[in-house]
Specification:
Largest sheet: 2 strands, antiparallel
Number of strands: 2
Structural class: alpha+beta
Radius of gyration: 15 Å
Distance between the termini: 32 Å
Strand content: 5-15%
Number of helices: 2
Order of helices and strands: EEHH
Strand order of the largest sheet: 1-2
């Protein structure tokens, strides 16, 4: 997997959306990025392959440690996704 991070502009974007049902896997597992997010990343508008990495931490302490690592590395901008009913 390539390591070139996509970088958005400096303004924060907060959007709400839905997780869509996938008949093939019989689960709610499709997340479609909203237009405001897609507009931030020109690479998403091209037919190139774009990958993602999902990291799920079971505790706030583990999450905080990872965020601190990201802040020190300054490699890419993480995106928070909250799942709720």
């Amino acid at each position: 997997m390539p390591n070139e991070m996509l970088i958005p502009s400096n303004r924060p974007i907060i959007v709400d959306g839905s997780v869509f049902y996938d008949d093939k896997s019989r689960t709610n597992n499709i997340i479609r990025l909203k237009k405001r997010i897609v507009e931030e990343f020109q690479d998403l508008k091209e037919a190139n392959d774009v990958f993602y990495r999902a990291e799920l931490y079971k505790t706030y302490a583990d999450f905080r440690q990872r965020v601190e690592e990201l802040l020190m590395q300054k490699q890419g901008i993480p995106m928070l996704i909250f799942l709720y009913k």
